[in-house]
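Weekly structure sync, notes
Attendees: PL, DS, HV (note-taker this week)

Item 1: MAM domain-containing protein
DS walked through the input record. Source organism listed as Capitella teleta. Sequence as pasted into the shared doc:
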Amino acid sequence: CLKFYYYMYGWHLAQGWLSVFRKERNQAQELLFEVDGDQGQRWLSKVINLEDMYPSTEVIFEAVKGDGHQSDIALDTVSITPGFCSKQSEPF
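Item 1 (cont.): predicted structure, written out as C-alpha cells:
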C-alpha cells in the first residue's frame, strides 16, 4: 500500500505534472498514477494498492513543474506498507 500527500499549485503548472511509477528488476516501468496542472492551493492525498511487492521493487516519483517560477510541486509523508490498502483508507 503506497500512501502520500501531494501539492500542485501555481500559474505555470499548465505544462506541469506528477507521475508515480513502479519498476521491477529487468522490466519496464508501470505507470501507477498521473496528474497534471494546477490542483488548487491545498494538499491532496493518494492511496495506491501495490500488488506483489519484492525487495527489488522501486517506486519512482517524477515531477515536472513547467517553465515559470510561479509553480510548486511537493510530496509529503510517503509511506509503503505490505498488503492492500483498505477501501476507506485515509492516507495517515
